[in-house]
Amino acid sequence: MSDLDVVNLLVIAGGTLAIPILAFVASFLLWPSALIKVYYWYWRRTLGLQVRYADCGGYRFCYSYRGKPGLRPSILMLHGFSAHKDTWLSVVKYLPKHLHILCVDMPGHEGTTRTNTDDYSVQGQVRRIHQVVSKGKKPFHLVGTSMGGNVAGVYAACYPSEICSMTLICPDGIKHPCETKFDNHLQDLEHSHYSLGIPLIPTTPEEMEDMLRLCSHVRFKIPYQILQGLVDVRLPHNEFYQEVFMEIVGEKSRYALQDHLHLITAPLQVIWGKQDQVVDVSGAKVVAETLPGCRVDLLENCGHSVVMERPRRTAKLILEFIISQQDTKKSSKKSS
């Protein structure tokens, strides 16, 4: 092979490598939001999750799933305010692959139909989710975080026969005795008649960073371009998020979980970050006092974003609880 052939080969090889590298750099600098979407797609694919749609009376739910119904109960996971089904990817990573897992986009979020504000109150979201999951034959384990925890608790109270057990992670909807940093923001918002910016609806990379600091005790070092991408993904939906926010802090929804706690009959697990600045950890005590049989797991050095900050620990706790409840039922059947 001549020196010229070697040079040509190196140029071709270098060009072949350069194309994906340049594409990545260009995406990172110019279209970070596109890179974030590809990232979620790749992670879902790696974990074996498939995206599907369920149509019910003209309403469409988007969800991702893995596995098939088996000996263990199916797990239905409800994300928090302004999030989406991919919120759960970090937890799903640590759950056994044989488990049947469904992560839904909550009403109006991501790929699920966006209609009117009646669907965004906690009770409205419960009704919509019931449209889809009522088709299932076996009781399932329900998991909800933050707003999704509020919805999950009310769901369990309204449809007890459908739930075999449940996990609430830093659930909203509780009259917690101690105020948080977010409670102070909320009071300022109310005094301004909601003319101030809402901390959970960022419009700039700086506001996105502030929101992440509010929601997480663990400090994640996130490049400015990624913060910009996260904002770009959310910006088209901020008007919708504001509608949802006004509904869930409204009189009908703000303490919906608190109002329904006494109606919950399913075995209950509560997971809470001790350094939660959005929904104070004192809410766990309120739940335990109303439902003395519930299991409470408080996580050290963890904020509101338990799913992001402690995914491995969260998955382990959920799995342990599901197994313990099944063992309890087996023991009860043998003794009877």
TrEMBL record:
The keyword Transport does not apply. Pfam families: Abhydrolase_1. Coiled coil: none annotated. GO terms for cellular component: AMPA glutamate receptor complex; late endosome membrane; lysosomal membrane; mitochondrial membrane. GO terms for molecular function: monoacylglycerol lipase activity. Keywords: Endosome, Hydrolase, Lipid metabolism, Lysosome, Membrane, Mitochondrion, Signal-anchor, Transmembrane, Transmembrane helix. It catalyses: 1-dodecanoylglycerol + H2O = dodecanoate + glycerol + H(+); Hydrolyzes glycerol monoesters of long-chain fatty acids. It is found in: Late endosome membrane; Lysosome membrane; Mitochondrion membrane. One of its GO terms (biological process) is acylglycerol catabolic process. It is a single-pass type II membrane protein. Residues 73-311 form the AB hydrolase-1 domain. Its EC number is 3.1.1.23. The chain crosses the membrane at residues 6-31. InterPro entries: AB_hydrolase_1, AB_hydrolase_fold, AB_hydrolase_sf. Lipase that preferentially hydrolysis medium-chain saturated monoacylglycerols including 2-arachidonoylglycerol. Through 2-arachidonoylglycerol degradation may regulate endocannabinoid signaling pathways. Also has a lysophosphatidyl lipase activity with a preference for lysophosphatidylglycerol among other lysophospholipids. Also able to degrade bis(monoacylglycero)phosphate (BMP) and constitutes the major enzyme for BMP catabolism. Belongs to the AB hydrolase superfamily. PANTHER family: MONOACYLGLYCEROL LIPASE (PTHR43798), MONOACYLGLYCEROL LIPASE ABHD6 (PTHR43798:SF34). This is acylglycerol lipase. It comes from Myripristis murdjan.
